[in-house]
Amino acid sequence: MVTIHESETVELKKTTSEIKEALISIAAILNKHGKGVLYFGIKDDGTIVGQQIGKETLRNISQNISDKIEPKIFPKINKVKIENKTCVKVVFQGSHPPYFANGRAYMRVADADRQLSARELEQLILSKNRDNHHWDTEICADATINDISVKKLKTFLKIAGLRYDSIKNVLAKLKLSRGSKLCNAAVMLFGKKPEDIFFNAKLRCAVFSGTSTAYITDMKEFGGDLFQLIDKAQDYILEKINIGMRVEGLRRIDVPEIDREAIREAVINAFCHRDYRAMDSVSVAVFKDKVEVRSPGLLYGGLTIQQIRSKIVSERRNELIADMLHRIHFVERWGRGIKLILEKEPTAEFSELGTHFITTFMRKGAEAVSSTTPISREKSREKSREKIIRIISNNPEVTTNEIAQEIGLSIKGVEKIVKALKTSNQLRRIGPDKGGHWEVVG
Predict the structure, then answer these.
(1) To the nearest whole percent, how much of the chain has pLDDT over 70?
(2) Which residues contact 275 (CB under 8 A, 6 or more apart)?
(3) Which of 91, 249, 296, 430 supports an S-S bond with 278, CB 3.0-4.6 Å?
């Protein structure tokens, strides 16, 4: 039995007598997704009733679409047999929104068509023009080469396996500049203080005591370059959720209630694919029952939630930023990020709300994340401090990166603990960062 349901890209009509409504659906789907399918001969509940087709039926459908939809499209219109009943299948696509049916513009919302207001139509036109000029490749008029951090650039090049000669040459080779002008991506990735140039180069984080936003127990805002914001978002989530443990041999491994890799992938996706023209920022919301990572900007290039869940597919709003992240293995060219999240956290959900794309992780609770005994976050931090002191005692010349790899924390997480140990006079640095060593006090 064939099952066909209405969706954001599929419209069902009982007969061609509903051609006027069909034209509205075609325009609405084109304005939201750029392509879709319409059937005549199927009721809106999916019941297949068939459609009488005369000599002029297909021609009349084609003529109506040609006359009533602007800009013009050229759909494929065919007779099809579904459960031994004759229906008409119209496959259409278009890449020049906004589309109008009988002089009015519509937008597909779930399986309904909503007429756009004058302001919404204006935003659709502006969005189309913006997409023709990607934000990350545009020239940043407010920045100069003096706003770029040499240290950040060299760190990136070392990880990417590239050689540094000069800021100007490196930025040109990476296509992050044009002549003496910097692209927006250069400032967002390697700027000394990107938040001074881009108001939305920030991360907003909050913890809510219940399952809604009614009561806030913690709120923080961070600024910085894209790499710093990714680390801060991940660290914030891991700090606020429950941490359990498992034992492997003689080692105790911390186990967060939401998989660490899934969290990081969701955060990277949020910053990589967000709409940087929107004044809002990426945000993290920790609730009693879930964690949400919210990114300004809906799915790009006509993709749907169903497509990203079922297929390895990616449409990149910020191709240059994505390329830089790929060079240091933050993202893959083949768009496997969503698949990785679902492999690690099968109950993860993806949704679009307003102008935001949201990744939601359901929390498991402390009792579900430990194969032995659940532990509190404070006890987890205490154990991490003890581990770092032990590692440094055995190897005073150990690096922060080596410590992070051994105990399974992020570099930022280790740096935070080391700073606390120095503040409490438990740890002292002797000599410079390179060539010096640690000394455990007492």
Answers:
(1) 91
(2) 135, 296, 297, 317, 355
(3) 296
Pairing of strands 202-208, 216-223: antiparallel
320 sits in which H/E element: helix 319-327
For 439, the enclosing helix (H) or strand (E) is strand 437-440
Looking at residue 194, the DSSP 8-state letter turns out to be G
- The rounded distance, in Å, linking the Cα atoms of 437 and 442 is 16
| pLDDT, tens digit, 9 for 90 and up, residues 372-391 | 344 445 556 667 788 888 88
Q: Nearest-CA neighbor of 185 among 327, 293, 299?
A: 327
Domain 10-131 has CATH 3.20.20.510: no
The residue to which tokens 């967002």 are assigned: 188
pLDDT at 119: 78
Distance in Å from the first CA to the final CA of the chain: 76
Is the backbone peptide bond immediately before 346 cis, with ω within 30 degrees of 0?
no
Question: Residues 239, 305, 295, CA angle at the centre, nearest 5°?
Answer: 40
**pLDDT, position 196:** 93
Contact 418, 427 (CB under 8 A): yes
pLDDT (tens digit, 9 = 90+) per residue, 339-358?
889 999 999 999 988 889 99
Query: Following DSSP, what letter does each residue of 240-270 receive, concatenated?
Result: HS-EEEEEETTEEEEEESS-HHHHHHHHHHH
- Beta bridge pairs of residue 100: 70, 105
Q: Would you tell me how many other CB atoms lie within 10 Å of the CB of residue 284?
A: 25
The alpha carbon of 349 is separated from its chain's Cα centroid by a whole number of angstroms, namely 12
Taking Cα atoms as reference points, which of 342, 334, 288, 282 lies closest to residue 313?
334
CATH number of 202-367: 3.30.565.60
Class of domain 376-440: mainly alpha
Instruction: Delimit the domains of the chain by residue range.
Output: 10-131, 135-194, 202-367, 376-440
- Whether the Cβ atoms of residue 186 and residue 171 lie closer than 8 Å to each other: yes
Contact 254, 408 (CB under 8 A): yes
**Res 315 pLDDT > 80:** no
Calculate the alpha carbon distances from 312 to 196, 244, 306, 317, 337 in Å.
37, 32, 11, 17, 9
Q: What is the mean pLDDT of residues 108-128?
A: 82
**Could you give the angle at which helices 150-160 and 319-327 cross, rounded to 10 degrees?**
60
User: What does the alpha-carbon distance between residue 276 and residue 109 come to, in Å, rounded to a whole number?
Assistant: 24
